[in-house]
Amino acid sequence: MDGVCKVLDKIDLVAVTPTGSGKTSFFFLTILVMIAITANPSLCPSASFPKDPAIVVVCPTNSIEQQMEENMAKMGIRTLMINADTVAAARIRGEELWIKAREGISMLLLSPEQLISKGFQDLLKFERFYERVCALGVDEIHLLSIWGLAFRKAFTQIGFMRARFRPGIPIIGLTATLLADPKVSDSIFNYLGVNRGEFYLLRRSNSRHDIQIFFRTLHSGIDGLYFPELAWVVCNNDKTIIFAATISLVFRLKIYLDSHLPRDVDPNLRIRTYHSIWGTIELFKFNPLCQIIIATNGLAQGNDINVVQTVIQVGEPESAEMFVQKPGRARPNVTNPRAIFYISALRKAKAIKIVSQSDAENAVDAKKDGAVAMDRAVAEIITAHCKPLVQDKLFANPVTDTTCTCHTCAASPPTPRPSICRCSGCLL
Question: How many structural domains comprise the chain?
Answer without folding.
Answer: 2
